[in-house]
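Build the 3D complex.
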Amino acid sequence: MRDVKVTPIKNGTVIDHITPGMALNVLKIIGIPDTGVQSTVSVLMHVPSRKVKWKDIVKVEDRELDKSQVDKIALIAPNATINIIRNYNVVEKHSVEPPKEVVGLVRCENPNCITNKPREPVRSRFSVTCRDPLKLKCHYCDRELGDIAKNLL
Amino acid sequence: MRDVKVTPIKNGTVIDHITPGMALNVLKIIGIPDTGVQSTVSVLMHVPSRKVKWKDIVKVEDRELDKSQVDKIALIAPNATINIIRNYNVVEKHSVEPPKEVVGLVRCENPNCITNKPREPVRSRFSVTCRDPLKLKCHYCDRELGDIAKNLL
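Done.
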């Protein structure tokens, strides 16, 4: 058992194959520590992976994610897999879906963009100009987004 | 083995009994992610503990901490224990030491304090007014520090 880095959890969610370096951003997306930590959360960074060279893993006990959280994870960790665990068994396993369009998940970096005007109720909207690595362009002002992780809403 | 949340590491440092909620601040103190993650790092938050009710744990493979990092951890996690692991064995185990005086580790919150003047080469210096919970008072301006974790240098 000495080499096993990933111990099983009884109930909850395992987010596996996270792009290395992105684990702390995934934590932010699922509201940690802002909304408080009521169940055990494990974060593994820079773990050797068979599929890719390195990966990060986040395990959250007794919690499942909502759609907007999964969609945001897809933006920063396009190879992530979401495993739902119940009574030590993986009852669901799916990959995150690369988006075709990104609506209401990230902020445009252009301060003058209409989506950043406090009085305008316009949701941000980006088209995907490159899928790997993911590149987004604002639907309204055409500005390409430099740093997706930093601009998550 | 199903209940074992803490898997052993071959070489490195295990920081155990961290005050719950402080794991991400301990990461910051040891320079993660700012200085990059070159070895596997595991973070466990809100883990049941026999000694106290809940604790956080941080494990860093292939790294040992320097004195200033250990001293900073003592400020935000006064019950932490530092375990140095070599070839799966704990070769050193010690508690962090509660400080008598805190020099050069935290910033005074008073913007007018002499320790915050860019031209004055004065290191911050605090006396300990309460040990549990830790409360610090600036040696120069007498201001009590409100949030230690936020003001770590």
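Chain A touches chain B through 27 residues (CB under 8 Å).
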